[in-house]
Amino acid sequence: QPRVFSGVQPTGNLHLGNYLGAVSRWVPLQDQMETIFCVVDLHAITAGFPAPGELKAATREVTAAYIAAGIDPKKSIIFNQSQVREHAELAWLFNCVARMGWLSRMTQFKEKAGKNKENASVGLFAYPNLMAADILAYRATHVPVGDDQKQHLELTRDIAQKFNNDFANQIKELGIGVPNPTPSPELPEQIYFPVTEPMIAGPATRIMSLRDGTKKMSKSDPSDLSRINLKDDADAISKKIKKAKTDPEALPSEVDGLKDRPEADNLVGIYAALSGKTKQEVLGEFGGQQFSAFKPALSDLAVEKLAPMTGEMRRLTDDPTEIDAILKIGAEKASAIAEPVLKDVRKIIGFLDVR
Ligand code: AQP
Question: Which residues bind L-tryptophan (predicted)?
């Protein structure tokens, strides 16, 4: 049975990339599959502990963004990760499944740890194991994320496959596996964890910085001008788009003409994602025009799409009672799925159960 899992870290500065690359794409899935959306607060401490109060505020803000974007708590499970203990437990077990070599190849760790790897937290290094645990604690089959998470999802698949292989006999003996959908002589007939499908598609899988078309739009970029925050008002949005880096050429009429023009490609991609059009359709409309004409149109569109969301986020965070109630119900529903999975996993591994 298909089941979707995805999440965003409550690390502040939620931006257009998080919205277009992830949250907005979750909305239609709610009517097609079972959907679980998590605010991954355990991940948010891997790069340092936030100041007191910040984590709570950011957790509520991300939840508010989910709801304002159209995630419906009646259709989806919405919760914060630290409320469901199984994430941390499964992450530990996966620490013992994943190999050092696999994690050493993770480019996000290299980028985030920077030059000072010796001083990075062990949690930052093991981050992808926690992400695998987030997904597999629900035996989720589909994970809609931005392009930057591709490598981590491959690691999740490797962890699932290694676990299924290493414990093939126990899974079979206990009779708690499901038939392997891709049988082959090397793979077990019965598997416990699905080999998750990444869902990375559309014109906005990697929104780039407004100041540098070769760098991902990111929460941690020191320049606020590099990103459109979901909390920005109309003035801030139009100022940032006006100041966005571009080249001096007019927009091309064909998508091919965006090659080697990263800033132009990014702005056209943002317009396409916000309007639900393809890049080619956008160029059909604006090809031949200068940025001086395209940028105001992009600003108007961004404001039109984001302003109602920003207003709803403000309403929800002003009095967090509603958000906290949604997260509480979500955590209960999430636990109801994850607890039996962890019970199975403990049995598969062979821990003595005396309770
Ligand atoms: N620029 C982006 N374009 C498209 N999708 C993006 N995502 C992030 N940036 C972009 C997607 O948003 C989801 C949540 O991301 P996250 O909060 O888990 O963390 P992140 O990827 O670390 O976000 P940032 O903004 O890049 O933060 P920092 O600065 O801390 O690195 C994911 O699905 C991600 O793909």
Answer: 134
- Give pLDDT tens digits along the chain (355 positions): 899 999 999 998 899 999 999 999 999 999 999 999 999 999 999 999 999 899 999 999 999 999 999 999 999 999 999 999 999 999 999 999 999 999 999 999 999 999 889 999 999 999 999 999 999 999 999 999 999 999 999 999 999 999 999 999 999 999 999 999 888 888 899 999 999 999 998 888 999 999 999 999 999 899 999 999 999 999 999 999 999 999 999 999 999 999 999 999 999 999 999 999 999 999 999 999 999 999 999 999 999 999 999 999 999 999 999 999 999 999 999 999 999 999 999 999 999 999 8
| 148 marked as binding residue | yes
Token digits of residue 283: 């160029």
Ligand 1 atom at minimal distance to the Cα of residue 111: 31
Ligand 1 atom closest to the Cα of residue 227 is 1
pTM of the complete model: 0.96
User: CB of 55 closer than 6 A to ligand 1?
Assistant: no
DSSP per residue over 210-253, as a string? SS-TTSB--TT-S-GGGS-BTT--HHHHHHHHHHS---SSPPPS
CB of 22 sitting under 6 A from ligand 1: yes
Is 224-317 the same fold as 3-199+320-349?
no
The CATH number assigned to the domain with range 224-317 reads: 1.10.240.10
d(CA 86, CA 345): 11
The residue contributing the CA closest to ligand 1 atom 12 is: 18
